[in-house]
Amino acid sequence: MSQPLPQEALDQLFINARTHNRFTGEVGDETLHRLYELVRLGPTTANTTPARFVFLKSAASKQRLAPALDEGNRAKTIEAPVTVIVAHDMAFYEKLPYLFPHVDAKGWFDGKPEADLETIALRNGSLQGAYLILAARALGLDTGPMSGFDNAKVDAEFFAGTRIRSNFLVNLGHGDFSQVFPRSPRLPFDEAAQIL
């Protein structure tokens, strides 16, 4: 862990990686299992790991998602080999006796106001969603993360009767670089960061 990754790895994860709008190829179930095995290792507060992932591969599952998608996201999402609903479980603390067994961490969260739980679940579930994007790139997949959908419709269709809430979507597959927009600018260090 003390050695920096080679430039080739940095290129794959960051420098040459892009947000894709069109995909080709297929993504096997074994790859999705391997992807999750990497994602689950990323750090979260007290190992809360609130993210929940729904991998939509079948035409039937994509049709269930379609009514919730904004018009600009519909075709590319339906056509993508896999679309991941990245969600978070508001009752994440119920798993803490297993996930954080050396202390009564469940008691830290049980009974807290819903807004406090949402902050913790959203923050850590978003981290896990970012891990998913990087893990997918590490496995040779391209990604197309997006909002542009009706969260309430997704929650009603896929998470009814649960405390799971959708956050964002990620299309997965092998990206068509001919359909990628030019890279948008990023803020320079001095505008976005400081060293104190």
Protein model, in words:
The protein is α+β, with helices and mostly antiparallel strands and 196 residues long. The chain has one domain (24-177): NADH Oxidase. The protein contains nine helices and five strands; from the N terminus they run H-E-H-E-H-H-E-H-H-H-E-H-E-H. Strands 1, 2, 3, 4 and 5 form a five-stranded antiparallel β-sheet that branches. The radius of gyration is 18 Å and the shape is globular. The mean pLDDT is 97.
Task: Detail the topology: elements first, then pairings.
Layout: H1 7-15, E1 23-24, H2 29-39, E2 51-56, H3 59-65, H4 71-79, E3 82-89, H5 96-99, H6 106-109, H7 114-138, E4 142-146, H8 151-158, E5 164-175, H9 189-192
Antiparallel strand pairs: 1-5, 2-3, 3-5, 4-5
Helix pairs in contact: 2-7
